[in-house]
Amino acid sequence: MGELYVPVSIESIQAEFFPDVALFIRSGTKYILYKSHGRNFSSLDAARLMTNNVEFLFVSPADLEVITTFMENNAERVLNDDTLQAKTKGKIIYQTSINFVGDLFEHPEKVSDFTRSKRLVENLLHYLASDKDSFNSLETVMSHNYYTFVHSLQVTALSVLLHSEAYLLSHDEMLDVGIGTLLHDFGKIFVAPEILNKEGKLTAAELEAYRGHPEEGYQYLKKNTRLSDISLGVVRSHHERNNGNGYPQGLKGPAITRSAQVGAICDVYCTLTIDRSCRKALSSSIALQIMKQEMKGSFNERLLDVLEGIVCADNPAQFL
Question: Has this prediction a pTM greater than 0.85?
Answer without folding.
Answer: no
